[in-house]
């Protein structure tokens, strides 16, 4: 059998120029690309004309393909083709389920490579003029999922652990925004603590809503996904650092 490799590849947050040189090279030589919701569909246009595309984002146009099926699709394609690309937004190991897919391939003796990408967690705030750390303001940040595995709710999060003044970045949290802000207030944060919601960051459609824990839910109603939530005093730096 030929040497076949599955590339678990991060495509960055949306702006195609934020892809790495390595990820662009691998897309250009892909035989198969397995992808789902992408912030930038133009990325697929970079693939060779005979490349096969498999959309695992929507099954029969409605539900996403379950993870175990995606794993098996990766495996089956790896048996057939060289240069299989599993394309993911941001970085494949930041809430990208890249680890699960890699373990599935490892267990079946399929070679894989991880191609890191620029995660939305830091780059989307950067395009909104919000640094995730700032000397004299905050010295750490945390990236948290706002949408936990099935059967578990946001309430599984240890809200007591957010007492310090870190920057908090919630991915996949737009639908739980009310719950997130209510919980943060309940666990000691002031209702006027600064928050921003950033939608479609780094793209032409980027939208930024700035508010407080108390009013952000109301102010950001109807904002489209993908969107992330950033909580912390660094949000206020946007007044001066807004550039995009
Ligand atoms: N692996 C990805 C994250 C996957 S989870 C990464 O490293 O970026 C998907 C979540 O990422 C979305 O729900 C949203 O919260 C965030 N996200 C991804 N792209 C985004 C964008 N362009 N603008 C705002 N949020 C984005």
Concise summary:
23% of the residues lie in helices and 21% in strands.
Helical coverage, percent range? 10-25%
What number of domains? 2
User: Main β-sheet, in a few words?
Assistant: 5 strands, parallel
Radius of gyration: 19 Å
Q: What is the count of helical runs?
A: 7
Q: What sort of overall outline do the alpha carbons produce when their principal axes are compared?
A: elongated
How are the strands ordered across the major sheet?
Answer: 3-2-4-1-5
Present as ligands are: S-adenosyl-L-homocysteine
Average of the residue pLDDT scores:
93
At CATH level 2, the architecture of the largest domain is 2-Layer Sandwich
* Low-confidence residue ranges: none
> What is the name of the CATH class of the largest domain?
Alpha Beta
Beta content comes to 15-25%
Task: Output the CATH topology of the largest domain.
Answer: Methyltransferase, Cobalt-precorrin-4 Transmethylase, Domain 2
The SS-based structural class is alpha/beta
């Amino acid at each position: 059998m030929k040497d076949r490799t599955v590339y678990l590849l991060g495509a960055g947050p949306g702006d195609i120029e934020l892809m790495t040189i390595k990820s662009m090279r691998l897309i250009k030589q892909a035989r198969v690309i397995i992808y789902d919701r992408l912030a930038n569909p133009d990325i697929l246009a970079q693939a060779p004309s005979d490349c096969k595309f498999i959309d695992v984002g929507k099954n029969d146009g409605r539900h996403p393909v379950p993870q175990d099926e995606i794993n098996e699709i990766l495996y089956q394609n790896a048996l057939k083709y060289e240069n299989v690309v599993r394309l993911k937004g941001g970085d494949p190991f930041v809430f990208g389920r890249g680890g699960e897919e890699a373990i599935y391939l490892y267990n079946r003796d399929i070679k894989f490579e991880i191609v890191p990408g620029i995660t939305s967690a830091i780059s989307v705030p950067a395009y909104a003029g919000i640094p995730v750390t700032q000397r004299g303001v905050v010295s750490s940040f945390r990236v948290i999922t706002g949408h936990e595995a099935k059967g578990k709710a946001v309430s599984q999060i240890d809200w007591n652990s957010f007492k310090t003044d870190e920057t908090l970045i919630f991915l996949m949290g737009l639908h739980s925004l009310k719950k997130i802000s209510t919980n943060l207030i309940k666990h000691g944060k002031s209702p006027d603590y600064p928050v921003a919601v950033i939608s479609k960051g780094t793209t032409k459609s980027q939208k930024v809503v700035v508010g407080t824990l108390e009013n952000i839910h109301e102010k950001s109603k109807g904002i489209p996904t993908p969107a992330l939530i950033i909580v912390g005093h660094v949000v206020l730096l946007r007044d001066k650092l807004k550039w995009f």
